[in-house]
Amino acid sequence: MRCQDILDKIEARYPRKYACDWDNVGLLAGSREREVDTVYIALDATDEVVDAASECGAQLLLTHHPMIFGGLKSVTTDDYVGERLIRLIRNDISYYAMHTNYDVMGMAELAADMLDLKDRKVLEEVLDGEGIGRVGDLPRSMTLEECANFVKGRFGLPNVKIFGEPEKQVQRAAICPGSGKSEAKPALSMGAEVYITGDIDHHTGIDMADCGMAIIDAGHYGVEHIYIADMEHFLKENCPELRVYTAPVKQPFQVL
């Protein structure tokens, strides 16, 4: 199967037009004409992932986060991006990233499904009524502590960080997978009593708690790792002739 044939199926479901202006999605390295029978899926194109894609014989690496964001003036082994790109090209592996277009057309609803949110609304509209994040009602009213444990269970997390009183009752929830600091105020304005996201800084956390909205920081990876299994299912359903390998789900850091 040609690489481009796979990308056509992906982009029909997750069109690139829904990516944010600052983003860098699409084929970032390799050939569209490459014949592909094996795909490796991961959240990030780390050294470990590049090695694993090569070891399993993948001709296509598919990630959520783009390894290349800004313009490159050189591709050398002097920096980690160049070194990874050289390894991908040397092993004839095409590399495709689907970031905010997937956030809008896949991740938002998928994350809301994980929490069984009802009466959902888009948190931030991007295009054609579609957007990043969702706001809705949890299955029942619960304390912030109960909600934190609910999030941990649904996303398979060892821990989360909360801003707000553990005994606070919450039901109206907003969720924005990834780094959600910029969506905290929109979540508050839409009546969320608890906001679930990642990468919340000190000031945003305490300020939102003072405004009456608790925050559960489940980590950037903690909520977005659901991309891996979702895209595995997509490829197996839409390209059943492919062999699909996935990066293991594991936190990129440890809390001691």
Automatic annotation (TrEMBL):
Q: Record's InterPro entries?
A: DUF34/NIF3 (IPR002678), DUF34/NIF3_sf (IPR036069)
Native species of this protein? Laedolimicola intestinihominis
Keyword Cell wall biogenesis/degradation assigned to the entry: answer is: no
**Residue ranges of the TM segments:** none
The UniProt similarity line reads:
Belongs to the GTP cyclohydrolase I type 2/NIF3 family.
Q: Which domain of life is it from?
A: Bacteria
Question: Keywords of this protein's UniProt record, alphabetized?
Answer: Metal-binding
Q: What is this protein called?
A: GTP cyclohydrolase 1 type 2 homolog
